[in-house]
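Hallway conversation turned thread

IA: we were arguing at lunch whether anyone had actually written out ATP-grasp domain-containing protein end to end. Turns out nobody had. So, for the record, here is the sequence (483 residues) and right after it the structure tokens. Reply here if something looks off.
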Amino acid sequence: MTLKKILIANRGEIAIRIARAASDLNIGTVSIYSNDDFSSLHIQATDETFPLSGNGVSAYLDIDKVMRIAKESGADSIHPGYGFLAENPEFAKRCQEEGIIFIGPNVEMLELFGDKGRARLAAKNSKIPTPSGLEGPITIESATEFFSTLPEGSRMMLKAIGGAGGRGTRAINNLSEIERLFKRCQSEARRSFGNGDLYAEQLIENARHIEVQIIGDHFGNVTHLWERECSIQRRYQKLVEIAPAPFIAESLRDEIIESAVKLANSVGYSNIGTFEFLTYQSNQAEYDSFVFIEGNPRLQVEHTVTEEVTGVDIVQSQIRLAEGATLSEIGLDVNNPPMVRGYAIQNRINCETISNSGQIKPSTGKITRYSAPRGPGIRTDSFVYSGYETTMAFDSLIAKLICHSNSSNFLDAVNRSKQALGEFDIDGVETNLEFHLKIMSHPEFICGKINTHFLDRNLSELIPNEPPSRRDIGISQPTAVEK
């Protein structure tokens, strides 16, 4: 089967990314846009474009309208991107009923990994370690009882069963917080995902967040495209991603990847997905243990860094797998994943600033100047331009800066990222560019002493005081670093 026309049920940079991948495959494209999103560049990247009814996020969640446009435009397939309808099994079912190909995992996988509690059970059934916890749905009473069983000094995580992006997630430090934060998580989850159910896990302190890129076809073949380091987070949302994970023991890397592939095989996974793990220190010497925390049955924001180090176009691979291609037909060997070339780092450029207390303040306005860096090993995925008016109706992400170095020395990729960040010129709105520069320059980041508490631990050092001059960017001197 060969797809003829793809409707892209998304917006912004990811819609542009999908449109380009489809164009390279000689497949027609259709974009959609809400009333308040008509100035986004994504509508110029496709062959056809159609308006949605309404404003903001809700317009992109209107399944009936999206399906009507698909029919009207003659699209034979839909790519959901990430966010919005990407993990919605009802949307995938509707596509199936209408005879339209859903470019992504099947309905069963969306249902399984869309329920974080069921995903935990699937991992357990595959003998993959998970944090101590309750699969849920839990109550305030059961959460309180579970917290009481934890070792003294331990903390608990409350998480939305249908959650993503850190929404509906809170850390519980003591019993007195449970009722208040439970209700807050429940409300946030219901508002964000239409499902207020929660589950609980023991919080793994000082963990590193490592995820594995999985890819499978419809014939039972599964492989991986290595792992990514995602520990640089604020409020449980990723800010910097790295491929492959630097400063990790090869034995631990192998165990995590093997577990991800094992889980994918056990559930019959197809198309692409990401399985996420936390690594921790069972002793004080090094990170030597891990647990599975969740699976994301969709394209990830950070797929870019994997593309850079493997040379695999993940979006094109999604499309070809949806057409029925095998892994071997798209150039992948189940037993020999592509070799990794150097390191790639992605910096998420958001319209926001961070206060000394860690509060995030969104910024809106008209972008009066936008000049993205260029050069070897530098890629920018964006949808804005000089004159674009930002809005709080959508996520604050306006660009992804991806820098790649073929060198096995992690510092070479860091230096390239620092140089590119310093050359990125955005005026008219506040951004986190300087914050990223501070992260890239921090000694702990450079030598790999990072975990999910890195930003909290070093916040006072990372908050920008004043705009840096070009000479203050500071390129680190390379030293011998083991991968």
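OS: looked through it. Residues 257 and 452 are 20 Å apart (CA to CA).
IA: good, adding that to the notes. The mean pLDDT is 93.
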